[in-house]
Structures are given as structure tokens and as C-alpha cells.
Design a protein that fits this description.
Strands 1-3-2 form a 3-stranded antiparallel β-sheet. The chain is elongated and about 35 Å long. 39% of the residues lie in helices and 31% in strands. The chain has 2 helices and 3 strands. A hairpin with an 8-residue loop joins strand 2 and strand 3. It is of the alpha+beta class. It starts with a strand and ends with a helix. It has one domain: Alpha-Beta Plaits.
Length: 71
């Protein structure tokens, strides 16, 4: 069973460029560690301080192995 994980970020409203750099770096690390990155979503309309990331992982066991590889 595939698990979809969502991450919510609270951003500095003037730090969009820093978040974009962060997302590029993690956009490479997440797949390298075994998850399928769906994407990063920076503020566009509405809140200027909330961003999201989403990724899929195969199972709870795969998630635990993924987290261990990130550590």
C-alpha cells in the first residue's frame, strides 16, 4: 500500500528564495533515499508563509528505511 506524506512549512515571508534553494536540494535527496517526490509547493496565492511538499513511499517499512537513510 502506497503512503503519501505531506510536509507543511512555515516560511519567512521574505525568504522565498531560501525555500526554493532548500526545495531544490531536498528534491534530489528525497528520491535518492527511496521516496517518490510529488513536488514542493511554495506560496503563490493566499498565505505568503505556508508551503508544502508531498511524496509517496511504498509502505511503512519503506518509510522507516527512508528515514534511516536521511539521518
Amino acid at each position: 500500500m502506497t503512503i503519501t506524506c505531506f510536509i507543511r512549512y512555515e516560511l519567512d515571508p521574505f525568504g522565498k528564495e531560501a525555500f526554493e534553494q532548500y526545495a531544490r536540494a531536498w528534491g534530489q535527496a528525497i528520491p535518492r533515499c527511496g521516496a517518490e517526490l510529488i513536488g514542493y509547493y511554495a506560496p503563490h496565492e493566499g498565505s505568503a508563509t505556508t508551503a508544502y511538499a508531498a511524496y509517496n513511499i511504498e509502505s511503512l517499512a519503506a518509510y522507516e528505511a527512508y528515514r534511516a537513510r536521511l539521518a
